[in-house]
Each structure stands twice: as C-alpha cells, then as structure tokens.
Specification:
Length: 390
C-alpha cells in the first residue's frame, strides 16, 4: 500500500462541495490542520457554528473521500469554528455571545447523560473529566497529572489520561508507553495502557521530534479526536494534561471539554508571579470549578542528609489559595526521585508507593476524587460555559 500524501488528500477533498456556496471545501479554504501519520489522517473543516448540525453530512462526505484513497487506514474530520473564520462568523463574539464550535460537533446519538449544556454529551461512559493546568510550562503539570492519575487507579478507580499538551506530549514517556494505538475498525482508536491507566496522547500519533505548528482549529481537532474517537470505555475520571499557559488554546479547550473541574499546578515562584491566578481566572471565565491548587517543587529535601531547604519562599501557595478562595490541595517537594521516576516511565506512585512523596500524591488524589465524586453525586451537571469578553 502506498503512503498517502497531503496533495492527494487535498485533491480528494476538492470533490467535496459545500452545499450552500456550491464550491468545493478546499477552494473555500475550509480545510485546516491536516495531520497524516502512517495512513491515519486527521483534519478540521471550519464552518459557521450556526450551521454545525447541517454540516454533518459534509463532514462525513469529506471523511469518506479521504478514506477511499489508497494508503489511508483511518480518517477523522471534525467541524470547527474559529473567530473570524473563512465564513465571516465573528459577529457573535463582539456582542459577548460566545461562538460555540462544539455545537458543531455533537454526535447525533443519545450520549449525554450528564445534563446541562450541549457539550456534556461528548464522551459517553466517562463520568468526570478533570483538567490539570498550569500558568506556564515546566512546573511539573504532566508529572503531577501522571502521579495523581496512578494514585487514583490505586484507589480502585477506572482512570484515563488524555494528554492534551499537544505542544509537548509527555505522558507516553512518563507512563513508559511506546508504540501506536490500534484501531480495529479504522475509525475508533483504542487507548494505550500501562499500570492500569488508560492513556491517549498526540505523542502516540506523531513522532516526538516532529516539529508541529498548531493552529487554533487544529488544536481543537486533535483534542476532539482524542476525546471522541477513542474507546475510553467506562471511566470514573479522565484526567486531562492541559497545554501549559492560559492563552486562547487553553481557554478554547476549557470551553470545549465538558470539565467537571480543574486542578492548578504551580511552583512557589509562579504563585508569586500570579501565573496561578491567571489559571484560576481562566477556568472561572468558563464556569469550570477549580478544585484546588497543588504546589510543586515546594521545597528541596537533600537526598544525602534529608535537610529541607525552602528555596522559593515555601507556603505562598497556601496563603495565595486562601486569599483566592481556592483549596490548597497539597505540596510536593523538588525531589530527584520524582524526576527520575517520571522521566524514566516508572512514576513514583507505582515504583515506590511507600515513599512520602508517593503518599503526598495519593492524599491529593483522594481529595480531588472526593470533590469530583461530590460533583457527580450532585448531578454532575454544569451549565454550559459562559464566556465573558474583557
Ligand atoms: P510541565 O508538564 O509543567 O511542562 P513536567 O511535568 O514535564 O512539567 O516536568 C518538567 C520536569 O520537571 C520533568 O523533568 C519532571 O520530571 C520534573 N519534575 C516535575 N515535578 C518535579 C518534582 N516535584 N521534583 C523534581 N522534578 C520534578
């Protein structure tokens, strides 16, 4: 089977005609975010969000056109809407009415048991979705996500990790998983799994050293694909390792994914720099409850003598959390074993569960689950997010 390339995909998509404009979707500039990986193809079709449902046949036709090409094993096309997109659909935003790209994505089936806004229907079988976010990169967000998720597995929960940090997917490495997800029907991917934890990451689909330039719709497309087109099965909780920062891409994700809540990871110095506050504000904007803040690299414990050094004025997170009305969930030391084990694919929670650091993760995980379970018991229904333009 010959490898499929970009040109042949665009050529195939030229046969797909937008019904109203009677022009093909390539000529109309509606196709974006094309990703090809070993015969697996993903792309986004930018549409006017008001026409989302009506565009479903177009999406299907586009998928079929590409699927019929030689060398294609799976295709995922998603509908996205972008502010100021090709069809000039930006008016809604200026009036404070959020564009709702996800409205275009609703599967027709009776998926949504969790009430509330339309987007709640996105992932059937998944009881709760929790974002792990940080104001900036390198604070240990992925390490925290992995260890918390594994601690939840140890609590007896069914847990998945969605690595939405598409700019630097690190879950495959941290969980020691390599290889590619299988897809028995060529459409739905099976998640990868290690230590009893299910995982899906762009890192499985794209080589780690492949430079990727992500545009807004592509980010949405990738995330939607990893949520919707993965057979997560029954999960109590899906932890989402968010991209670092609080820009548009993160806001869009917080808006698009039916989040039960968010955990913010921060180092003491970021708390001082108010990065954590930005994260809090971002989730508040979209009405996602912030479950609390985790202070990472809180203090340094000397591996030789056990002395505790408070390199960055320790304790700031607790004070800041209190000031902001956020729960302080706990703290993790800057610790060589945490670093070595997570970078080596054997996170400390599984490789040394008796260690104090592992117990700290477990305590945080238990508290996060307690709060999430309370939300689920309360109906889990969160109102569709409201975006306030400032
Ligand atoms: P982010 O997801 O915020 O970019 P990572 O989780 O990838 O950050 O962590 C960045 C680096 O810091 C990794 O090498 C990781 O092993 C290390 N790290 C994270 N948390 C700790 C910690 N508490 N102690 C020591 N190293 C840590």
């Amino acid at each position: 089977m010959s490898a499929v390339d970009e040109a042949s995909i665009f050529a195939a998509l030229k046969a797909v005609v937008e019904p109203k404009k009677q022009q093909d979707i390539v000529a109309l500039g509606m196709v974006s975010g094309l990703v090809i990986k070993d015969g697996n193809v993903g792309f986004a079709i930018e549409v006017d969000p008001r026409e989302g449902a009506a565009m479903e046949p177009l999406r299907k036709a586009a998928e079929k056109a590409v699927y019929d090409l030689d060398g294609v094993t799976s295709v995922t096309a998603v509908l996205t809407a972008e502010k100021g997109g090709p069809q000039g659909q930006s008016q809604g935003q200026s009036q404070g009415q959020p564009e709702r790209p996800q409205a275009a994505q609703q599967p027709a089936g009776p998926a949504g048991q969790r009430g509330g806004g339309q987007q709640q229907a996105l992932v059937p079988g998944v009881r709760s979705i929790v974002a792990v976010a940080s104001g900036k990169g390198g604070v240990g967000k992925s390490t925290t996500t992995t260890n918390l998720a594994l601690a939840m597995v140890q609590l007896g929960l069914k847990v998945g990790v969605l690595d939405a940090d598409i700019y630097g997917p690190s879950q495959p490495r941290m969980l020691g998983i390599s290889g590619r997800p299988s897809s028995p029907d060529g459409k739905i991917l099976n998640p990868m799994e290690n230590y009893g934890l299910k995982c899906m990451s762009m890192g499985f689909l794209v080589a780690e050293d492949t430079p990727m330039i992500w545009r807004g719709p592509m980010v949405q497309s990738a995330l939607q694909q990893m949520l919707r087109d993965v057979d997560w099965g029954e999960l109590d909780i899906l932890m989402v390792d968010m991209p670092p920062g609080t820009g548009d891409a993160q806001l869009t994700m917080a808006q698009q994914v039916p989040l039960t809540g968010a955990v913010i990871v921060s180092t003491p110095q970021d708390i001082a720099l108010l990065d954590a506050r930005k994260g809090l504000n971002m989730f508040r904007k979209v009405d996602v409850p912030v479950l609390g803040i985790v202070e990472n690299m809180s203090m340094f414990i000397c591996p030789n003598c056990g002395h505790e050094s408070h390199i960055f004025s320790h304790g700031g997170a607790r004070r800041e959390a209190e000031k902001l009305g956020m729960e302080f969930l706990g703290e993790l030391p800057l610790d060589i074993e945490i670093r070595e084990t997570s970078d080596g694919g054997r996170p400390i929670v599984v490789s040394n569960p008796g260690a104090a650091q592992a117990k700290a993760y477990s305590a945080i995980a238990a508290r996060v689950w307690e709060k999430v379970a309370a939300q689920i018991d309360a109906g889990g229904a969160r109102q569709a997010p409201k975006i306030v333009m400032q």
